[in-house]
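Notes from hallway chat w/ T.B., transcribed later so I don't forget. T.B. wanted the structure written out for a chain they're using in a teaching module, and asked if we could keep both sequence and structure tokens in one place. Agreed to drop them here.
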Amino acid sequence: MDKHQHWQKLGLSGLLVCCSWAALAADWCAQPELNVNGLSKHFDSTDRPPGDERNEVNTGLGLTCALKGVGNWRDEIEGGFYKNSHFTTSFYAAYGIYYPLNTALFAGLRNIIATGYPTDSYRTGIVAGPLPTLKLELNSAITVNVSFIPKRNAIVFANLGYRY
């Protein structure tokens, strides 16, 4: 099995796990939200050599589970998978905490850990850290989540959430 087939099988496994978790989450989760992972924008294009392109369509699925909150703050856990900037499948888990700026907009941090990154850049292939995030509730069912990776070659990425 070549590396591409291996990652395809991992992606399919991630989809099955995510769908199974989504079915079970309604029983224990205060407010389950299915996330369609999607777009990113890399701001380091001038630093990369020709042919070293980044994937800016980061397809995948995730599930967010709202927790009980901490005072005025909302908190949640999240897990899922996506096709990362290096065109490989990443699996991730996160804990987010958000403060309401108004009735529809929340600002906070997502503390995330993700697999699937090249080992020439990262010793383990795993990245982790806090990401400043905005969560916009378009209505009671649809959210847009935008996170910022603050590093030299900054990245902004977004996903769409559906609460069920």
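Follow-up for T.B.: Residues 90 and 116 are 5 Å apart (CA to CA). Might be a good example for the class.
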